[in-house]
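Many introductory courses stop at the sequence. We go one step further.
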Amino acid sequence: MQLYLNDTSPFARLVLVTALEAGIEDIRLRWVDPWASPDALTAINPFSTVPTLELASGQAIFESLFICQYLLGLCQKNKTVQWCGVDDLPRLSVGKTLMEMSFRSVVLQRFVAQAENCELVVRSRAGIGKALDGIDRVFHAPPENEATGFSMADLCLALALSYVCFRLPDLITERATDNTLAKLERWEKRRSFERTAPQALKAKPETLAR
């Protein structure tokens, strides 16, 4: 398997952390700029998005949660992250949508002139702010023991918040509670989070094991 990614995508990071928590480290990493629509990526994903997981069969999966579900299905033992039960789906929807809206806001500010006045940016930031106002009710701290399991909803919420801190720190400062930030700090200390932080991925390792 090989994973197409870049070093700042929150969706790619979700896949990397899931793989590490599942004990899957033999994935080859293919570093690309998806905005440049490289031939190697568009040959298997016509949308030129990351992450894209190319399987040994030549088929590809290119939505982060589907990739995570696939990886968790490969590993039946010794994985700390579990796929969501029905009761976890509302929290998963908060985390995934927060990640999507934050990414959209960042991308629009990069590519749209006077983005601060763009209706999509305004609506995205408003939604992010409202989500942060109530997120402490659904955001759980990580387990004390690194070997103790948790759900994909927990992981997605933590990584979404981490991305907001990284790209939209003003919203975190304005809207996140001290309790939320304390729980996020505990997540950031997990080995899987430290190894996949944007600054750690700048070295662009060839495999996840490295």
